[in-house]
Amino acid sequence: MRFSDLISLIVANLSRRKGRVLLTAIGVMIGTAAVVTLVSLGAGLQKAATESLWGISDLSSIMVYPTYGGEMGGMVMIGGSQQEQQDAVLLTPSKISEIEALPGVERVIIQDYLSVGTEIKLDKLSSWGNIQGVSVSDLKEMNLAASQGTTELGMGKIIVGAYVNRNFYDPNQRYDEGPIDPPDLMGKILNVTLIKWNEEGGETRRTYRMEVAGVLQETRGEADYSMYMTLDEITRWNEWGRGQRINREKEGYNQVIVKAESPQIVLDVADQITGLGLQAYTPQSMVQGINSFFTTMQVIFGGIGAISLLVAAIGIANTMTMSILERTREIGIMKAIGATNNNILAIFLGEASGIGFVGGVGGSILGWGASKLINIFSASYLASQASAQGYMGNTMLATVTPFWLPIFAIVFATIVGLISGLYPSLNAATLVPVSALKYE
Amino acid sequence: MENGFIQTDDLKKYYRMNTVGVKALDGITIDIPRGAFAVIMGPSGSGKSTLLNLIGGLDWPTSGSIFVDGEEIEALDETELAAYRRNKVGFVFQSFNLISSMSAEENVGFPLRFAGVQAAQRKQRAREKLEEVGLADRMTHKPTELSGGEQQRVAIARALINNPVLILADEPTGNLDTTSGLSVMHTLADLQKSGKTIVVATHDPRMLSFATQTIYLLDGKQVSEETYHQTIEQLSWEGTN
């Protein structure tokens, strides 16, 4: 039997039972639409998550931390992998030199946090904040840009993140008064008071006047709520807090940022740093983790949709069984005029696959349409939420339908049809011709 | 006529109906020559349709052998059997067995699909066959739009479409009125004259006037003409008393 004849026969057979075929196909359609919509939703969430991560992260940077020996400290996590427990490896100047010597490393930026009790005051307003010192003279080297003032660091100067001003409050404010307007910090003098306590509980304070030399652009990351100073100055403050000098060869630094020469080699450089016994985190490894999570989520979403397809598959099997019962005599006729078992099998499998195909095409269109509809509703909802919160970022798409998804869904629905039709079709193909001809 | 075109040897077909064993055929040995018009006579349940089905490869015997044109039918596998039915045999059934959704032309051309013949050729050959059986003006009619006689002539055209050497007809006049039945008998007789071997299972005695050979069956056994008539008379007498 020619393939074209087989197809035309299948189409003709399906056409003469339009109502039943359509009803059965609707089941497949709903299942396929569920798969397409849910997987699109998963893909949309994944895209939104990874894109926002790309937006806030410098793809060529690697955060490096010391490894502390011990039960848990010995674990070094990179992209979910584990290395054997090992002794403490600190971020000492000599270790940093080793990192700098690694191929692909452009520069190493030391980052240290203020570890002394602090009060920050601007006139009568108080604040708190994350103050850190960095070993660069210009924050541009950390891919930070200023919205006001400069990014150049210097003694007695502090550069603040875009939202640092939101942390200021009036300690004398009555509870029934609304929040204060965030002050404009540019060019203002902040009184930073360091506080330390001796063993008897006696308190010592020292206040520094720091001029706000610049306000950074929004990064939607840690930098938005951070204040930056020179590493030397923060080291001096920390030493005052401790009452002794810090020996970096013995204690190391808290963290360093390693800049790779290009984003393409970041993971390689991170692996090399891990090889030195340190902990290395890159936004890319986070993206890998996120991708892996969302891929799992898409599989789960697809699985939920596939349950509807399973129900539809039972519908196809039922329709085909009924159809074969009704057409038993026709099968007998076909065998009497020379059809082989394979011919009969191909015809009925083709019909079952055809129902799956029709449902798959309809379901893909329906699922794609539903995804678009979700996008329209979510876009207007997110826009209203964003404007309510005074945030004017781009609203991302809630669903993304990859080009392969409708094709996959159609193929999958066709295979579901084929498998559903397998048992009834095999029954049809193996009927004894004379019994089929006598069937009433 | 050359002997041995259809040969059966001690052919048996037993089956169980619920818990009762039925001997549909019990040791049938026949020899039908090529080009014969063989009539298998017998009342309902005598085994004539079973014998026809076994010769046509629609069923398998319990034991014994069937040779058709030198081929041992029960030794063929499923694919070979389908090829045998497609190329060598044409079936004509009492209930016509046409596919109701297809036109006369499509029904006649249907076996050619399984022979891999192209659509245009199928159409042309189906038209020729329908013209041969006098249905040139009924090509596009569905079976429900045709009379019983016309339907049977469509079925005969379908049986002839692959130019088989053997025509097996099971009660071909059973569902027809006298005139249509006679027309079908003449068509089958014409086919025999054209060189085809015709085997008809029937209890219509009019068919005997066309027969070159008659096989009498009673309760699955082959009997002589004399025994057959005596038994039938006996049954008729018992039936009326």
Give a brief outline of the structure.
The complex is a heterodimer of chains A (440) and B (241). Chain A is an alpha+beta fold. Chain A has helices at residues 3-15, 18-56, 93-100, 231-242, 248-251, 266-275, 283-326, 328-336, 341-388, 404-429, 433-438, and strands spanning 61-65, 77-78, 81-82, 105-113, 117-122, 125-127, 130-134, 146-149, 157-160, 189-197, 203-216, 226-230, 255-260, 279-281.
Characteristic key phrases:
A: 440 residues, 2 domains, 11 helices, 14 strands, elongated, B: alpha/beta, Rossmann fold, 6-stranded mixed β-sheet, 4-stranded antiparallel β-sheet, 7 helices, 37% helix
Give a structural overview.
With 440 residues, chain A is α+β, with helices and mostly antiparallel strands. Chain A is built from eleven helices and 14 strands. Chain A folds into two domains: 203 residues, no CATH class; 222 residues, no CATH class. Chain A is 50% helix and 18% strand. The longest helix of chain A is centred in the C-terminal third of the chain and has 48 residues. Chain A is elongated. About 4% of the residues of chain A have low confidence. By secondary structure, chain B is α/β, with parallel strands linked by helices. Chain B has a single domain, classed as Rossmann fold (3-Layer(aba) Sandwich), CATH 3.40.50. Chain B has seven helices and ten strands. In chain B, strands 6-7-8-3-9-10 form a six-stranded mixed sheet, with helices on both faces. In chain B, strand 4 and strand 5 form a beta hairpin. The chains are: A alpha+beta (440), B alpha/beta (241).
Model regions low in confidence, pLDDT < 50 over at least 5 residues of chain B = none
Chains forming the largest contact? A-B, 26 and 28 residues
Classify the fold: give the CATH topology of chain B: Rossmann fold
Q: Provide the number of structural domains of chain A.
A: 2
| CATH top-level class of chain B | Alpha Beta
Mean pLDDT of chain B: 89
By CATH, the superfamily of chain B comes out as: P-loop containing nucleotide triphosphate hydrolases
In total, how many domains does the architecture of chain B comprise? 1
